[in-house]
Amino acid sequence: MQSKGYLALVLHAHLPFVRHPEQERFLEEDWFFEAVLECYLPLWERLDRLIQEKVPFKLTLVMTPTLMTMLKDELLGRRLERHLDELIELAEREVHRTRKDTRVQPLARLYARKFKHAKKIYQERCQRDLVGAYARLQETGALEIITSAATHAYLPLLEPYPLAVAAQVRTAVESHQTLLGQPAKGFWAPECGSFPGLESWLGESRLGYFFADTHGILHAQPRPLMGVYAPLLCAPGLAVFGRDQQTSNQVWSASEGYPGHPEYRDFYRDIGFDLKRKQLGPQFFSAGKRKQTGIKYHRITGPTQKKEFYRPALARKVVQKHAAHFVAERSRQIERIAKLTKGLGPTVVVSLYDAELFGHWWAEGPSFIEAVLRLIAQDDQNFETITPSAYLERHPCQQQAQLSASSWGQGGFHQTWLNQDNEWIYRHLHWASGEMIRLAAKHPVASALLTRFLNQAARELMLAQSSDWAFIMKMKTVVPYAVRRTTEHLQAFQSLRDQIQNGQLDISVVSELENRHNLFPTLDYRCYRKDYQAPKRSPS
Amino acid sequence: MAKPKGKTVSEMLGMARDWGLTGYSKLKKSDLAKLLSKSLKHRSSTELLDLAKQLGLRGYSRLKKTELARKLAIQLKSSTTVKKAAAPAKKSPIAKAKRTATGSARTRRKASVRRQRITSPASAKTTAKASTKAPKIQTQPVASKLPASYHDGQFLLLPRDPDWLYCYWDPTEAQQAKLEKQASLSIRLLRREDDNFVPVKLIPISRLARSWHLQVDSSAHSYQIELGGLNAGGDFVAIMNSNVSDALPNTPSEQVTTEQVHYQTDAKIENPKIRPDTKQELAEQMHHLSTATSSQSMDSAAALDSRSWLESGRGPGSPDKRAH
């Protein structure tokens, strides 16, 4: 069937920098372990299988610089394997404990197999390097990996300090190139937070496209003719694609989204809360408190606290049904739009999701992605998957407009990251941004030691700018941790800045910070200068 | 009645650093208290009021600056005699974070993400209207040991959403002195009309305030604000001026274009297939489709599954009470 349109499926994989070498075990590092084992590994395996089986598909994956740095980190790699070994050991104990329970034991065996399989995939097929493994998928052309702001800063609230925005973009682009060996073609504005003016910094870094929330496109100047179903050109060589709300709702929505089906595995019911302390072992407690283990035997069931046991075979059938529904809906949606815009150009439906939803929250999510991609690859579909860069290559003539400010947070603007729970951080972030810009302007060149101080000051500032901290404060989840991280990085920045200012550089201070916050080894503090020149690289 | 509290050595060291004092690092607690007491006369009224609050003094808001400084000096010096055991037990932010984070913190974070991302921008208005009561005076969390002030003269106005702007200020010593001379403080909101900024609102504020949320009447305007007081004649006297900030538009542009541009070459091309008289109508229809949150034809077997879940009232983002 002739293609009338496209689906651009975009998965946003991000975690804030949660590496804590100062302690042997640190609860927030679990975020990383859970995301790797439940999302990034299963997703890689399924995409790799599609490629091996020559199923044609296109997928865009955002890998944020902080996530890629952590995936490449040796310490976190070792701790990840330790975590995996502990899970294998727990699952085997569970197989033994449930030996007389015919309903639970198959599930315990399932988890034991799953963890052993994950270990094998991680160690043997990915060679303990998920970034490298994903890079190999990118080489096939099926996957396009793009970048985001260096530490996922919420850029609209840095707008008063344009060079702070520039530094986030420049550092991200440089880090992406270093870690993947390929330049990023596109950019994920953290939280889809965009504002008029962002395009100048993205264009400068030769990024070809980025994404905005629906109303960022709909309220553009002039008004777009195609709604969110065609990109807007907002600068030479730079396009912005808008989020499609229908596809978001089908997966995200609490009222109609697929992941809440009663047959799917329940996320919350975890043996970490159900078993006795002795049955779990001390490694599954944090500061004496229970925590999730990842072993969950129940399904969502319904509006009841009495959960029934998970039935994997039935859940797999539901996945297939939901995938078929998703694809059929896209076909109808594209048909409807194509009819309306006949002759004006092909429709592109842009579906943006947090990657961690698929696998971490929604256990069956990676299977859903695989099933959707297999169904779309069939010959009788009226649309195909595409990456934004491929779309722009095929259809270079698009409407030009100035983007309007938006985010994908509650309310659609900046209120999630600027409200009475987190507003106190901005006077400090802005002051530090101004100081960093001033220091970079003052030191066009610097001695080796001073360069280390300036570079680390830039790292500390960027870490304080992560949108995650303001978000956690707003959502009132792990607020003390978010406050601590914001404060700790700003204090570190101030300490380095004071030493630079006084000309008394204590090497032990910078060494300790470099060891703890070791991201962006190639960062150049001059990215805070107007005349910054990105390092020249030979074409790969 | 709460007893006045003392300051620990590390808190005093932090104060000395924040106040830009020198030669304090090796002082004993009693000497440190003396040094800080001497420096009180150089602090702004706001800082003294903050400190009085931290030290648990009562009835301080009515005191003159010199009297307040004197009382604070006494309290600082007396705090050096407080026994260690009487000091409130301090717990590290890490320990607190861990206690809070039962279960997976990331998971609860994601739960909230899921719930918020399906909200349409139209709800921004509802959110803004719901918070029309006077803003609380915000202070940073106790766990945050950042300087209370940088005295850099910053007065920044930021757009928050189409209905609200946010501002904060950090006066220089000279500006602070001028502000303190005012009988009362106000923020004056100015809106750009043609080439001029026209006053539209005068908002009385507390002396303790350091930031404010301002409701604005309409979107797509440029705003600026001033911080100051009223003179004897009742006229507003500006002491600090903010940057200009554009409020965020929340409606589509009235202008629709049919022109297209080449992605790489920047060449302009008129799209001949669009009739000028129908472009507005088409833009409206596409807008409607773009904002449709659900499909029209949920008649498949899978849709039935979705409905059964809907009846369950259990969304993917529903937090589990056990995890809290």
Quick tags:
heterodimer; A: 540 residues; alpha/beta; 7-stranded beta/alpha barrel; immunoglobulin/albumin-binding domain-like; 2 domains; 10-stranded mixed beta sheet; 19 helices; globular; B: 324 residues; alpha+beta; 5-stranded antiparallel beta sheet; 3-stranded antiparallel beta sheet; 10 helices; 33% helix; 19% strand; elongated
- Please give the oligomerization state of what you see: heterodimer
Could you name the ranges of chain B where pLDDT drops below 50 across 5 or more consecutive residues?
A: 81-134, 296-324
Question: How is the biggest beta sheet of chain B arranged?
Answer: 5 strands, antiparallel
Write down the domain tally of chain A: 2
- Total strands of chain A: the figure is 12
Based on secondary structure, the structural category of chain A is: alpha/beta
What structural category do the secondary elements of chain B indicate?
Answer: alpha+beta
Which architecture of the largest domain in chain A would the CATH scheme give at its second level?
A: Alpha-Beta Barrel
Report the C-alpha radius of gyration of chain B, rounded.
Answer: 28 Å
CATH T-level fold name of the largest domain in chain A: 7-stranded beta/alpha barrel
Helicity range of the residues of chain A? Answer: 40-55%
Rg of chain A, rounded, reads 24 Å
Give the number of helices of chain B.
10
How helical, in percent, are the residues of chain B? 25-40%
Q: How do the helices and strands follow one another from N- to C-terminus of chain B?
A: HHHHHHHEEHEEEEEEEEHH
Shape estimate of chain B: elongated
Distance between the termini of chain A: 37 Å
From the N-terminal CA to the C-terminal CA of chain B, the straight-line distance is 34 Å
Rounded mean pLDDT of chain B is: 69
Give the largest chain-chain interface (CB within 8 Å).
Answer: A-B, 132 and 119 residues
